[in-house]
Amino acid sequence: MNLIVAADKNWGIGKDNKLLVSIPSDMKFFRQETMGKVVVMGRKTLESFPNGLPLKNRTNVVLTSDKNYQVKDAVIVHSIDEVLEELKKYDDDEIYVIGGGKVYEELLPYCDVAHVTKIDFAFEADTHFPNLDEDPEWEITATSDEQTYFDLEYTFVKYERK
Fold it and tell me: Which domains does the chain have, with CATH numbers?
């Protein structure tokens, strides 16, 4: 299973249920990686999308504790066990965990590849991703050249579980 995330230099990933910054090439990378695949997210992440609608051309699996929650064109599950059961229907390589913080935390143990857009700036954040650089189970297997968006520098980094 894969995960995909954009994190600042303190591994911050969001504030007030929004991304810290929107970088066009990061959005493009996200679309390229996840198009036609399965994306797994929490309810708040889904609701942060335009009109709160599932991502097009992807199988959207949404985790929520609300038993009455329903969204057209999304698979709704209510526990990590239910998520894992649902994901058995798909090829591991086709699955991308896309947030938010709690969902990343709960599904990280099941992921083997992490695509991290590392932004060289410290934003004010209220949601963080675990620091993979300090986790001995993970290693960097690929890094892009440094890129710039206005005054922000960032790299695309691929981590793989050892």
Answer: 2-161 (3.40.430.10)
- In sequence order, what are the residues at sequence separation of 6 or more whose Cβ sits closer than 8 angstroms to the Cβ of residue 76? 62, 64, 69, 70
Question: pTM of the entire structure?
Answer: 0.97
Nearest partner of 117 among 25, 18, 42, judged by Cα: 25
User: Which DSSP letter does residue 58 get?
Assistant: S
Written as six digits, the tokens of 113 are 């590849």
**Helix, strand and coil in the chain, % to nearest 5:** 25, 35, 35
In order of 7, 20, 38, 96, the CA distances from 133 in angstroms are: 12, 20, 26, 20
Closest listed residue to residue 6, CA positions, set 104, 105, 116: 116
- Rounded distance, CA 127 to CA 136, Å? 22
In contact, 34 and 47? CB cutoff 8 Å: no
Residue-wise pLDDT for 105-150, tens only, equals 999 999 999 999 999 999 999 999 999 999 999 999 999 999 999 9
